[in-house]
Amino acid sequence: DDGKSIQQLKTWCFWFHAGLHPYQHLISKEWEQLSIGTRSKYKTQTIAPYVYGHIHSTDFFDFHFSLIQQNPLIQYSEEQVLFTQKEEQGFYVSTNKHRYFAQYVFSSSWDHKSVAEHSRVYLQQQFYGWQIETEKEVFNEKAATLMDFRTEQDQGVSFIYTLPFSRNSALIEFTSFSDQSFNEQYFKNTLTNFIHQEFNTAFRITKYEQSVIPMTDYAFQRFTHEGAIAIGTAAGMVKPTTGYAFNRILKDSIHLANHVLIGKPILDFKKNRFQFYDRLLLQIIQKKPQEALFILETLFEKASFHRILQFLDEDTSLWQEAVLFTQLPKTSFLLTIPELWK
CA torsion, points 197, 203, 207, 209, in degrees to nearest 10? Predict the structure, then answer.
């Protein structure tokens, strides 16, 4: 690994069945309720049997590096991979320091430019967040705000995401699904305005985080063009309509490990109906962002949060999905389907 991603401070959040997550011991905060803010109402619900969990990247990496140091069969090295070459007997990986041979190579490397060029839709989920301490006690620490659409909607679909750690401490982020890039000053102004308008309190910033996640209909493959096994974002493990990836990568890693340990062949991905749903919504977000905003607001106003999370986990039945879709405006979807069919 080149070491860059490990140095970036970040947080990972995900929903899971209470008490049953493999990284339960690393979860620093859980919320049993989620809130959604639309332009007409603010709604809070329990999400049982799920809870929403938060992990610090520093805790995550410290835990794994401790395991690596205890295991003589694992070697970690900070080197830059230059290229991977497949030979008849395996793979050669050349770095800026060494050349390695292996029967299996797992690679998280992907080419942003190539993906953008071969996508019909390539949006960016941009987020910029502050961990703040407020002068007043203004947060409901029992509920995380997944999306609050009561913010600037200049480009794409935007919302505020809030994780309250106490009554006067929270991570608060501005997030946007857009094909336009925002500068840092825009993020700062938007967050400052939102905090003053919604909470009317002085605050100080203790940490900040910023990143960009691809939202694309690109058909990621199980194998890279060199034949290595793709993992993480390179394998399409980022849910293209939400940006959530932690649990998807975890499940995929377990799947790959089990196959390698018993010598079972690793197969390419199969298409499923959820890929179609994702492509459909991405098209609407790109071409008609205001309609996409209306669709998302309608979904959260009419459906239970538990069912929406189950759908986003791709764990619903066709019947449950049909019930969800009947609650949404039909015109946008019906007009977009012919484009996808082409």
Answer: 10
How is residue 139 written in tokens?
């947060």
Q: In sequence order, which residues have a C-beta less than 8 Å from that of residue 170 and are 6 or more positions away?
A: 131, 132, 134, 139, 162, 163, 164
Tell me the residue type at 283: Q
Asked if residues 105 and 91 have their Cβ atoms less than 8 Å apart, the reply is yes
Is residue 186 within 8 Å of 156, Cβ to Cβ? no
Which residue is it, tokens 């994780």?
163
Between strands 169-178 and 50-56, the pairing is: unpaired
Token duo for residue 183: 């500068």
The DSSP code sequence of 277-332 is HHHHHHHHHHH-HHHHHHHHHHHHHHS-HHHHHHHHTT---HHHHHHHHHTS-HHH
Question: Regarding beta strands 106-107 and 229-230, do their DSSP bridges make them parallel or antiparallel, or are they unpaired?
Answer: parallel
Tokens of 216: 């694309």
Separation between Cα atoms, residue 342 and residue 340, nearest integer Å:
5
Give dist(CA 177, CA 297) in Å, integer: 15
90-95 sheet: strands from edge to edge = 81-87, 90-95, 99-102
pLDDT for residue 146 = 95
How many helices and strands, by DSSP H and E, does the chain display? 10, 15
169-178 β-sheet, strand order = 42-46, 33-37, 143-148, 157-166, 169-178, 122-134, 203-216
Task: State the Cα–Cα distance between residues 46 and 265, nearest whole angstrom.
Answer: 41
Distances from the Cα of 282 to the Cα of 55, 115, 279, angstroms: 28, 15, 5
Tokens standing for 202?
């002085």
Quick one: CA dihedral 176, 7, 93, 254, positive or negative? negative
> What is the reported pTM?
0.90
The residues of the chain scoring below 70 in pLDDT are: 330-342
Q: What angle do the packed helices 273-287 and 289-302 form, to 10 degrees? A: 130
* DSSP collapsed to 3 states, 61-100: HHHHHHHHHHCCCCCCCCCCEEEEEEECCEEEEEECCCEE
